[in-house]
Design goal:
Blueprint lengths: L2 E3 L21 E3 L7 E2 L11 E3 L7 E8 L2 E8 L2
Parallel strand pairs: 1-2, 2-4, 3-5
Antiparallel strand pairs: 5-6
């Protein structure tokens, strides 16, 4: 599977290795889900080239992304 559209599915959380086994996944749309937090463990073993995270909730979410050997933390608030 190369494309996965999970937009507007009322997803509130994703457990570690949620996409395990989807090694060919390149496009992932998670927009419109009231996710509270995403961690790097959710995307372990996945090499997504396009990740869409457009949220329509008023709350703030935390996204933890790891690039190579450095980790970065971003707070993303919906507009």
């Amino acid at each position: 599977m190369r494309i996965l559209n999970l937009a507007d599915n009322s997803l509130r959380q994703m457990l570690a290795r949620f996409f395990q086994g989807l090694t060919k996944l390149r496009y992932l749309d998670l927009s419109g889900n009231p996710l509270d937090e995403l961690t790097i463990d959710v995307f372990r073993d996945v090499k997504v080239k396009r990740l869409i995270l457009s949220f329509f909730q008023s709350n703030q979410i935390s996204i933890y992304i790891q690039f190579s050997r450095t980790s970065k933390h971003s707070n993303v608030a919906s507009a």
